[in-house]
Amino acid sequence: QKKRRAATARRQHLKSAMLQLAVTEIEKEAAAKEVEKQNYLAEHCPPLSLPGSMQELQELCKKLHAKIESVDEDRYDTEVKLQKTNKELEDLSQKLFDLRGKFKRPPLRRVRMSADAMLRALLGSKHKVCMDLRANLKQVKKEDTEKEKDLRDVGDWRKNIEEKSGMEGRKKMFEAGE
């Protein structure tokens, strides 16, 4: 048990040491990102100097609006270019599928259709072909044998109950018993 306690204590100590190292590494990374961000902003965005007079402020606002408009135009142009290239890519991929002969087959659904309707759909309404499949079948009549007739009579329980119901049925039962 002492060994187990020592092993678990060591494991917990190592775990806490690893967590402390991870926390310090995360803090270092966050500080490095902040410094990098400050350097980038200092390099690309000069500090804004606000002039004292109203006319200079208006000129500064006009310059900023002009920059915003030019950036918006560039953004719109790039979006349109992106849409065009996406459309071209779709067209080219469709042409590739056409050339290869691999089409996406839609899932087929079962349709109940008679043979006549199918031929009419395939050949058009001007072709009148009658496909009466039952016309050429041989007609077979089933002959009733006496055994089957007796079995049917015995098998039909409704008839037996109707016959035995009431006084007439009891009279028949009494006469049958004699």
TrEMBL record:
BP GO annotations: cardiac muscle contraction; skeletal muscle contraction
The molecular function terms in GO held by this entry are: actin binding
Keyword entries, A-Z: Acetylation, Actin-binding, Coiled coil, Muscle protein
Q: Name one GO cellular component term.
A: troponin complex
One family from Pfam that matches here is: Troponin
Q: Which InterPro entries match?
A: Troponin, Troponin_I, Troponin_sf
* Coiled-coil features, chain-numbered ranges: 23-102
Whom does it interact with, and what assembly results? Binds to actin and tropomyosin.
Main function: Troponin I is the inhibitory subunit of troponin, the thin filament regulatory complex which confers calcium-sensitivity to striated muscle actomyosin ATPase activity.
- Which family, according to the similarity comment? Belongs to the troponin I family.
Give the protein name, as stated in the record: Troponin I, fast skeletal muscle
